[in-house]
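Translate structure to sequence.
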């Protein structure tokens, strides 16, 4: 019995040693498949500049290393982040501003875009829900063209810009914030053309922000609504007959008359002799001639 127990102990010891050797080999194999990359050692806000205290190196499986990750922390010193980073997130090239870019909001504005700030309040700013990273429509309330500025009966409200990205509220650009915050200024990302529209809209009326779903890219052009349409008092205007077109007087045409051609007048025809009446024959002197024809004599008077 004692010898059998010793054999069992010996076999158990050998199995334990084999398990340890296999575990060590497996861990060594896992270590060979790992690399080291730079991750954020603290939270970094959007537009912030990276310093050496914000970076730490950590092991990362080689098969899962993010594209553009850094294995040299010195290459990250002074770079500006385009998005906010949380502690432990890998730092990648696609989420950083170009080398030499200055920190702040200007580094976040994409190429071909502009950042423009508008004044808001708790109502205009959608009760503080217009946060960085959200999308809004911009609506203006003004007077119809051709009316006085204080003529409220001809006011009109219209959406002039759609799906505009909010870059910052007040001086904060953290897109991870979800708690509503009432501020007095909102910075929007616009195109140069949108910047002109926005500047004109705030100069001719009052602005309002309309919060929209970021996954809704459909734009819906509207004609705006007037006070008469809102209250249902709008009446169809009578169709006016087209005004008669003014006929432009033509320029006087100068008519050149041809030179008159002299044609000699024909002498008037002689009037036919009227038949002689007996009275006229008696009054006129007559000449008589005796004509002899053979043996006969004939007297004819003229």
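Result:
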């Amino acid at each position: 019995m004692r010898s059998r127990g010793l054999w069992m102990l010996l076999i158990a010891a050998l199995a334990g040693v084999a398990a340890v050797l296999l575990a060590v080999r497996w861990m060594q194999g896992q270590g060979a498949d790992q690399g080291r990359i730079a991750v954020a050692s603290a939270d970094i806000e959007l537009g912030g500049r990276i310093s050496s205290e914000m970076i730490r190196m950590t092991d990362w499986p080689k098969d899962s290393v993010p594209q553009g990750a850094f294995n040299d922390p010195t290459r990250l010193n002074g770079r500006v982040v385009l998005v906010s980073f949380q502690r432990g997130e890998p730092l990648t090239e696609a989420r950083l501003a170009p080398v030499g870019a200055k920190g702040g909001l200007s580094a976040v504005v994409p190429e071909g875009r502009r950042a423009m700030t508008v004044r808001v309040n708790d109502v205009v700013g959608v009760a503080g829900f217009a946060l960085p990273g959200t999308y809004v429509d911009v609506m203006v309330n003004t007077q119809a063209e051709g009316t006085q500025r204080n003529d409220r009966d001809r006011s009109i409200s219209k959406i002039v810009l759609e799906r505009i990205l909010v870059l910052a509220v007040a001086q904060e650009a953290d897109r991870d914030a979800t708690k509503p915050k009432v501020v007095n200024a909102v910075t929007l990302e616009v195109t140069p053309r949108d910047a002109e529209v926005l500047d004109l809209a705030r100069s001719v009326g009052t602005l309002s922000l309309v919060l929209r779903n970021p996954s809704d890219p459909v734009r819906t052009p509207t004609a705006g609504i007037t006070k008469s349409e809102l209250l249902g008092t709008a009446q169809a205007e009578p169709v006016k007959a087209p005004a008669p077109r003014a006929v432009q007087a033509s320029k006087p045409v100068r008519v050149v008359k041809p030179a008159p051609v002299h044609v000699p007048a024909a002498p008037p025809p002689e009037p036919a002799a009227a038949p002689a009446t007996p009275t006229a024959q008696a009054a006129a002197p007559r000449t008589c001639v005796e004509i002899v024809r053979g043996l006969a004599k004939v007297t004819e008077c003229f």
